[in-house]
Amino acid sequence: MNPDSHHTSGNNPTRIIKAEDSIKSSKRRDYPFTLLHRYEVLSPLGSGGMGDVVLAKDIELGRQVAIKWIRGDLAQSKDAVQRFYQEAKAAAALNHPNIVQIYDRGRDDGDDFFVMEYVDGESLAERLKRGPISAATLRP
After folding, report:
1. What pLDDT is recorded for position 108?
2. Could you tell me which residues are beta bridge partners of residue 19?
C-alpha cells in the first residue's frame, strides 16, 4: 500500500499509511494521519529496543493513547514478533500504577502493533539522567 494513498470510508476520505513508515518517515511526514480508521496519529514519542512509539488519539473512545510498532528490521523475524506480543501480553496481565495498561493489539498491512495507555511526562531514560530512583518512589 502506498503510504500516501487514500481510502474512502463512507463520505470521509482517510489517508492510510503503513505502520512501519510512521517513525522512519516522521521527519518528513505530515501529522496527523489516520491508522485503521480508529487512531489519529499525532506525533512520534520515541524508540525502544523492539519498536517505535507514537502519540495517537483513539477516535472511538476519545482518549489519547500510545501506539508501539515493532521495528521494521525485527518485523521480519517470527521470533521477534512473538517476543513483541509477549511483551504486550505480560504488561496486560499486570495491574499497577507504574505500569501502563495495554488496550489493544493488532496488525495493519502486515505491521504488528499494540495500543497502550498514554501517560504524559518524562520518559524513564530522561528521569534516570537525574539520578537513581529509590524504591520508595516506585510505591503507589
Report:
1. 77
2. none
